[in-house]
Amino acid sequence: MEYTVQKLASLAGISARTLRYYDELGILKPARINSSGYRIYGQKEVDILQQILFYRELGVSLDCIKNIITSSSFDPLSALREHREKLLQKREQLDLLIANVDKTIAAAERRAEMSDKEKFEGFKQKMIDDNEKKYGEEIRTKYGDEQVDESYKKFKNMTKEQYDEVEKLSLELNETLKKAFATGNPAGELAQKAADLHRQWLSYFWGSYSKEAHAGLAQMYVEDERFTAYYDKEQPGTAKFLRDAILIYTGMEEK
Q1: Of 140 and 33, which is predicted with more confidence?
Q2: Would the pTM count as exceeding 0.85?
């Protein structure tokens, strides 16, 4: 079966403008242009559009989607299996949050008791799942499954007081790092205070602390563009500055 832009857009629940935009980006080209100048889409294009919408639902950028589906190694069936696994994970997150909301309502209506720890369980799990999705492969390769899983477990078992302290430390670290960066001296008092605050913050997630692991994480901040982008979003060069401060703090700087 073949579809015009309007008919395919209606079928997929998106706008005709979106389909035209996908054509402009080279993500989804029509099968042909008819004699009247209308874009015509066939079954192949329908299947590709389904893949695009799956990826969009999972939060994948259009640039990444284009690279994936235009790759010579792209396998639609494998992609569908991967989509299913990701959607099941997403459903698990939503089920946990819904259960959390239901219990909160019950507690508010005096029908059930709910501890402070329980109030944050759904959100903690979502943060863990998001972190695993974004950085899981890198951190597991660097530190191993056991250490990463232990870190997640420690985070899930945090009390509200501990969680509040982590948030407070994070804010203090960012403010101190910002001031330290302005000095341009990673060995200075402010920079070394930032490195120590970073160690304190890590202690809430790591089972045990080591200078080598701390220095290794700091190096990752520079080597992995996603970490670099996080620290450099306000002041470019901050990730490298923090790395240098931590290497000095741990005594792991290159001689």
Answers
A1: 33
A2: no
